[in-house]
Amino acid sequence: MTARALVSVVPGAREDRWREVRRHARLFARSAASLAGLAVVALFLVVSALGPWIVPYPEDGRGAVHLDRKLQPPSAAHWFGTDEVGNDVYTRVILGARVSLQIGLVITVIAALVGVPLGIVAGYVGGSLGELIMRVTDVFLSVPALILALAVVGALGPGIVNAMLALSLVWWPGYVRLVQSKALALRQETFVEAARAVGTGRLRVVFVHILPNCVSPIVVKASMDMGTAILAAAGLGFIGLGAQPPFPEWGAMISHGRNYLPTWWWYSAFPGLAIYLTVLGFNLVGDGLRDLLDPRSRGS
Amino acid sequence: MLFGLLCLTFAISHVVPGDPARLAAGPDANPAMVETIRTKYGLDQPLVVQFARYVRGLGVGDLGESLRSRNAVRDDLARYFPHTFELVALALLLAVAVGVPLGMLSAVHKDTWIDHWARVVSVSGVALPAFWLGLMLQLVVALSLGWLPLGGRLGLTATPPAPITHLLLVDALLRGEWRTLGDALRHAVLPVVTLCLPALASIMRVNRAEMLETLQQDYIKTARAQGFSGFRIVTRYALRNAMIPTLAMIGLRYGWMLGGTVLVETVFDWPGIGLYAVSAALSSDFQPIMGVTLLIGLNFMLANLLVDLAYGWLDPRIRRPSAT
Q1: Is the Cβ of A296 closer than 8 Å to some Cβ of chain B?
Q2: Distant-in-sequence, close-in-space partners of B114: CB < 8 Å, separation ≥ 6
Q3: Looking at this predicted complex, what is its ipTM?
Q4: Which residue intervals of A207-297 are DSSP H helices?
Q5: Beta carbons of A102 and A51 less than 8 angstroms apart
Q6: Are B296 and A145 within 8 A, CB to CB?
Q7: Among A120, A216, B64, B269, which is 20 to 30 Å from A193 by CA?
Q8: Closest residue of A to B245, CA-based?
Q9: Which of A155, A231, A239 is the closest to B12 by Cβ?
Q10: Distances (CA, A) of A108 to A123, A171, B137, B307
Q11: How many Cβ contacts (< 8 angstroms) between chains A and B?
């Protein structure tokens, strides 16, 4: 009988689980930093969802031209000022949130979808296939992600889709490492050995015993990665290999605003502040989740 | 490992879509010219043959040539890498010199204002986009206050010292050209600060966490009971043990910093391999990018080797496994 089957026959197991979730929520809420992070992330998600409906000048997101109001300082009409073709910077920053959310989600989800199965194979199944997976992973990890992504975008050509593709291609090895070490440790655990001893199939052991126990570190890493992936994509946008104008992407906006420093500082200052707050929010949430779900790995 | 790295760079440059011969020939070239270039660079050969040629070339130090400038990539890297190395080395030194004591202070004075501020630095450091921080530092420190130069390595009036080590700061020091040294240092401040902040933040963070754990250990309590001074306990006994994970982070950060130079060098117009890689990537010039990737990968492997050696120096149990 597997652990899942046992849980289903023990009365009150579901309530216990619910109590556990509430206990975790209380612990999370006790940390001011985690709550602040959660607030920032929530704001970011709301802004991403409602962006096109709440911005004052929706047409500016598509690169409209209003030369009569170009490079105006922040004011009541234009909170973050305007850029060199008269687009409202506030509008573009708000619309950029959705772009960043998409970038972060795509990269993180692809990386996890590729990395987690490979990590399980390498850690739980092992053998020469596992060895091969780890060698390839090590090679990828021996070059900083940004450089590798730069090389891939250099080969594919600049653009937001290629930038996302390149970052996804280089992002998965972190998950392989994480899941492999976890799966390797779990393989030795008594409950996994017991499940194997009673003849549970390999696939079932993976889905019922290994995977659920890997979820916590994966969630923590994914939360952190949302921030880091947004940062990396903005970096590619900044050097001109990511999103191309007039697409409202934060990194590309900073890159253009750079030519208008120092007089028209608002053009590059506000998109940068948006990146900083978003990444900070995801990192704080990730930190909070780690303290809660995976306290032993704190600080690493 | 090295072989894997070679396969990876080769795969990126040869397997991905895009036609290097077409790019090299330029937009106005006719098909015959493209074919000539294809044959000249061996791009019409089977992939296995191309790979063998690539590896053989690397064996004799041939990294190919830039399709744009026709310069040998090896010469370009030799010219640009010393600048990047100086930048990264200074940034890493600063990150360790500030990050380790700050992490230690933060752990010893846990939950005081020192700890709170140190943690603000550590959380912000990894979240700030380096390129944006660089621009804002330029805006405030260079443009508004005029305290430091905006970018580049030397002012227009300064002449670089005759090369000895090819490291500008070291050469200026060795030749006793103090004015050039001062100028170069002033130019280095902002890029070094920008590049070091994320590393500083994570080094501080790891060191704090490890110190907190180490300070709970029995042998520290014993040392306290025996009347050793708090300073001696922290620096002599606790720090040494907390340094092992911190060292791993330092090694990791060295590699990440090499990646970060791509952004920081672009902002500060620092003539290193980061800026070189960016300009190559923007014009789809493969060989320089592959050269940079390979060089950075090698550096990273070397750094990890040094970290492993340093482990042994810090922890005798690793040095003599049989003694445990």
Answers
A1: no
A2: B105, B106
A3: 0.84
A4: 211-238, 250-257, 266-293
A5: no
A6: no
A7: A216
A8: A300
A9: A155
A10: 21, 8, 31, 30
A11: 165
